[in-house]
Write a structure and sequence with these properties.
Distance between the termini: 7 Å
Structural class: mainly beta
CATH architecture: 3-layer Sandwich
Largest sheet: 4 strands, antiparallel
Number of strands: 10
Order of helices and strands: EEEEEEEEEE
CATH superfamily: Rieske [2Fe-2S] iron-sulphur domain
CATH class: Mainly Beta
Number of helices: 0
Length: 101
């Protein structure tokens, strides 16, 4: 397990996302219902950034073509079965947010 500090609490607004770069890997960090979630930053449809997408509970909608992903599991919720984005464990310590990469 390699924890990397990626943000401070308050940098990601409720029901919002922020793209971060960890050692060359683009990751989307989301905050919803008091929890942080992290998954790969590019939608599987056309490799567009997903962090600016609309978040509702555990679902983010890609702002480009409206694909929906579960931000906890990475699973695509519509269109194709078996499509899943990589997720990352998030650990909050005090004011610091870490991702296990």
């Amino acid at each position: 397990m390699t924890l990397v500090k990626v943000a401070n609490q308050g940098e990601v607004m409720e029901n919002g996302g922020k793209e971060i770069n960890v050692n060359g890997t683009r990751i989307a960090l989301f905050y919803s219902n008091g929890k942080y979630y992290a998954l790969e930053a590019l939608c599987r449809h056309q490799d567009k950034p997903i962090a600016p997408g609309k978040v509702d509970g555990e679902v983010v909608e890609c702002p480009w073509h409206s694909w929906h992903y579960n931000i906890r599991t990475g699973e695509l919720l519509d269109y194709l079965e078996g499509v899943k984005m990589t997720t990352y464990k998030v650990d909050v310590r005090g004011n610091d947010i870490y991702i296990d990469v």
